[in-house]
Amino acid sequence: MEKNRKDEQLEQFRVDDRDQKLTTNQGLKVTEDEFSLKAGVRGPTLMEDFHFREKMTHFDHERIPERVVHARGFAAHGEFELYESMNQYTKANFLTDTSKKTPVFVRFSTVVGSRGSAETVRDVRGFATKFYTDEGNYDLVGNNMPVFFIQDAIKFPDFVHAVKPEPHNEMPQAASAHDTFWDFVANNQESAHMVMWAMSDRAIPRSFRMMEGFGVHTFRFVNAEGVAHFVKFHWKPLLGAHSLVWDEAQKISGKDPDFHRRDLYESIENGDFPVYELGVQILAEEDEFKFDFDVLDPTKIWPEEDVPVKLIGKMTLNRNVDNVFAETEQVAFHVGNVVPGIDFTNDPLLQGRLFSYTDTQLIRLGGPNFHELPINRPVCPFHNNQRDGYHRMTINKGPVSYHKNSLANNTPATSTPEEGGFEHYQEKVEGRKVRNRSDSFRDHFSQATLFWNSMSDIEKEHIIDAFSFEVGKVKNKDVQQQVVDMFANVNVDLATKVADAVGANPPTGGGSDVTKQSPALSQENMVKKPDTRKVAVIASRDGDASQLEKTVQGFKEAGLKAEVVSDKLGNIGNLPIDHTFLTADPVLFDAIYVASMNDEKKFKKETGRYVTEAFNHFKAIGAASKFATILDGKEGPGVVTNDNGEQFVAAVTAHRHWNRDI
Prior knowledge:
alpha/beta; Cytochrome C Oxidase, Chain J; Catalase HpII,  Chain A, domain 1; Hemocyanin, N-terminal domain; 4 domains; ten-stranded antiparallel sheet; six-stranded parallel sheet; 18 strands; EC 1.11.1.6
C-alpha cells in the first residue's frame, strides 16, 4: 500500500528494537541490565548508577494523566478523498481539490469510563478525526450522537462531575445509572434530547465501524469571496449504523472488554478497511432564523428531511497504529485546529471548547510543545516565535524570536488571505455584556419528542427498558419522580411505563403536540450488509471436513467472517479451528451456524448454549439439515434449518430479527 505523507513523516520516529544492542537513552551501550550498581554484592545501591536511575525514572513517569473524558479510546490511520470540489462554499484546500488524498488519524472512544473500563457500556462514543492537510491540521472532534447534554460550556464540569463515579465511593465505573447523573438531568432539562439518544440503541454500537459520527456543532464554511454558509458535519459508515442489545452488551463487557478495539484492529489487519462518507448539511446565512429551533443550539439537530446531507467524500481507515501510547494516547485534538475556509459560530458550547482543549492538553501532555509529538505534527512546515518549554524538539536557529523585528527582516512573516493566511469571518456582533442565554435556546422537549416519534416500535421498547434500568438503579425516590415528571414532557406513555417499572407515581401532566418524524434517525432504516459480519461455525473434529470447508468458503464469498468453533483446538481436515467453546462466546458473534456435532453430552450442551444465546439476542441461527434438531423449539424469522447458504446469509444481513416470539 502506498504511504501517505503522514506515514512518511512518522517513519523517522519508528524504531524496531529487535536484534539491537541495549543502550541508555543517550545511546550508551549497556553491559548489565539485571543488577543495580552496589557497594559489595550485599551492599547498598550507589547514587552513581545512572543507568538504574534513568530506567527507574522513566518507568516512574510512563503514565501520563488520562483524559478526564474519552479516556478509553482506540485509533487508526487512514486517508480522505474528496468526491467533488466544494469551492462554492469553502476555500479549504482539502475540500476543493479532488486530486488530493489527505492523511487522517481517527480516535474512537467512550466518554465516561476510565482508560481501563469496558468498551460496550451504555455511553456516548467519541469520533475525533485529525486531517493532516497541506494548510495545517484540521480537527473534526465529534461524537456518534449529533447533540449534547448542555448548551453552554460553563456547565461542562457540572455534567462530567455528575456522570462520573460518585466521589464518596468512586462508583459506578463507566455508567450513568446512578443518582448524581439523573439528578443533574432532572435539574438541567436542556439535557432531554441528548438523554433520549443516550437511552437509545445508539449508545451501544455494534462496532466503531458501524456507527455514525457527527461534528455536533454548527460551523461555518467560508469561500474565496468571503461568503459564508452554516455547516454541520456527518460521518456515514458504508456498513450502516447498527447496535448491540443491552443484555448482550453487558455480557460482552465481561467476556471481552476490548471488543470494539479488537473488532477495529482485526478488521484493518484483515484488509476489511472501514469506510465512512463525509456528509455536510449546508445552510445559507439568510436562512438562519427560518426554523422553529436555533441553528446554533448544540442540543438540536437539523432534521435531514429539512436540510439534506450532501455526501462529499470518503474516509478509509487502512493502517493500525504501531504504538498505542505514542499515537492513540498522545494524540491531541482541538476544535480550534482549523484551516482557511472553516470557521466558528457563536454556539456557546463550541466557544467554550475553543478554550478548554488547549488547557487540557497542557496538563495532560506536560507542557506547551505537545504539537511537536510525531502524531500531532502537521505535514506542512510550521514557523513562529514560540520557544522553549517542556519537551521542545525543534532546534530554532538565530537570535530572533519576536515580532516585529529588523534583524531577520521581520520573519517569520504573516500571510495575506490570498497567500493562505487564516482570516476570521467578519461577523457583526453587538450587544451588552451579559450572563444569559437566548430565548431561542429554551425549548428543551420538542426535538426529544421528534426523536421518540422517529423510532420504530422495537427501538421505543429498548428506550423504555433503558430508562427503566438506569432510573431503577437510582436510590433517591425523589430523583426518580423528577425524571418521570420531566420526560412526560417528551411522551406521556414513555414516562408512565418508566414510572411503573421503577415504582414512581405516574405523571399527572406533560404531553407533547409534536407529531413530526425524521425517518433518518431510526437505525431500522439504515443500510444492512453482510460484509464482515462474524459467524461462529460450530463443528466437531470428527465431522465432514469437505462439507465444512465448502460451508466456510461459501460464507466468506458472501462477505461473512466465518470462524470455526469446537470443543478443542486443532484442525478439521485442512481447516484450523479458531476457537473453543471456552475461548469464545456466542455474544462475540453476529450469528451462529451449526455445521456438525458429535454425540458427546458436553458438545451438545455447549452448542445448545450458543444457539439459545444467539436466538434470545434476535440473531440469525442456522444448522445443516442433518443437525437441524439442535434448533428444535427455536422458530421464527432468522432461523434457517436447511442447507440453503444464501438464505442464511440473508438472515445474517438483516442484523436482528425483532419479531420473534421470545
